[in-house]
Amino acid sequence: MGKERAVVLLSGGLDSATVLAVALAGGFDVLAITFSYGQRHDVEIECARRLAHKGRVLEHVIVDIPSEIFSGSALTGIDLKDVPKHGAVPGGPGIPVTYVPARNILFLSYALAFAESRMADTVFIGAHSVDYSGYPDCRGEFFEAFEKMAALGTKCGVEGRPIRVQTPLLNLGKHEIIQLGAELGVDYSITHSCYDPDTEGRACGECDSCRIRKKGFEAAGIPDPTKYGKVP
Amino acid sequence: MGKERAVVLLSGGLDSATVLAVALAGGFDVLAITFSYGQRHDVEIECARRLAHKGRVLEHVIVDIPSEIFSGSALTGIDLKDVPKHGAVPGGPGIPVTYVPARNILFLSYALAFAESRMADTVFIGAHSVDYSGYPDCRGEFFEAFEKMAALGTKCGVEGRPIRVQTPLLNLGKHEIIQLGAELGVDYSITHSCYDPDTEGRACGECDSCRIRKKGFEAAGIPDPTKYGKVP
Predict the structure, then answer these.
(1) Best exposed site among A2, B40, B41, B165 by fewest CB in 10 Å?
(2) Residue B53 placed within a domain
(3) What average pLDDT score do residues B30-53 get?
């Protein structure tokens, strides 16, 4: 009998690279799914491809999501490209301005369909609620509700093999995620976090995402392999 | 103040055309979303476009779903194009062979993201559990669980304006759906049900879906406006 299969949500960022390593270390045969949409830079998709290749995943699908789903409507005037480079750092009350409507719900639903069609029992997602505490779709109670809904709405759930949603990073800070990944041998040089990379895909070193990443490596006591475009 | 907005899942079939009419009759400003994937015939998408145009919806998005999400993998060997033309009729135990992994979950998640980004409070879906009783994702308890999950995982839910999922056809038989639509003035000549249309998009009149549709019109006592390719 073969190993258990899992679908990993792989963005190409630091968190999902770590989750991929967790799934592989857990003995799963891994399939990966990556989403391309308004907010994503090509360099991040390319990182996802390289991570999937390096992790020898069984299958990697890249799904385009039309930009008008999340935004870009004349009705709302929201444009994902206008997402602020600063302001996503925690500490303030409420939901961060970088919230994207129902994003994790849509991503998990794709992963669920992909998992069920491939007879995978588990979906891994790199959500965490420590550094960014305000996202409704990064909370444990949301993931529990998603699992319940999925158990009721799928054939495998009705037949007694509901798909589990695993969130191994949920209660970890960025430095703990990096420490975990380093122990598992993640090559963070092929991950991308920057909101505003230069034309060669190098990180700016200054946006919120870069700053959280840098601080994470510092706090973890691990050298930061990121190629920054400017000398920081 | 404007009217309330709703997103209608519009396949181009008889059921979703009826639901569109219900939403319009309910006074909503309607946005429509249609999915194109392996199993869909172009003629059905074209029906969706015509229904949306006729219903003067505010916005209509057509979303491509990669065929490998639901099937078509070398790992499983399932191909949606091989879905049987017969065998979907109710009466047998268990889940119909025409079940597609997590399809309604994915469709509703897209509708949810679209609704939240457009400040719509309601999603309409034409699911019903009378004629096809075995689908897990066409049951009331599933829709309730989806609403709960969505309330926890979206900004609007957390802020106290959770999106409702309306299923006005849930407990209706096909003939009741047709009677309802006829009362609301639905033009069923621009809806499509056939699994196996000819090259001009005309219905075969013989597949399960055609037969259920025909029987529905008969039982409703309403002339069937469907253009059949062969003389039935």
Answers:
(1) A2
(2) yes
(3) 91
Residue B36 has what DSSP assignment? E
Give the DSSP per-residue string, B122-155.
Answer: EEE----SSSS---GGGSHHHHHHHHHHHHHHSH
Please indicate whether, in this complex, the C-beta atoms of A145 and B142 are within 8 angstroms of each other.
no
Any CB–CB contact under 8 A between A56 and chain B?
no
Predicted TM-score (pTM) of the model is 0.92
Which chain A residue's Cα is nearest to B76?
Answer: A118
Prediction ipTM score: 0.91
Domain count, chain B: 1
User: What residues have CB less than 8 Å from B65, skipping those under 6 apart?
Assistant: A63, B35, B36, B37, B106
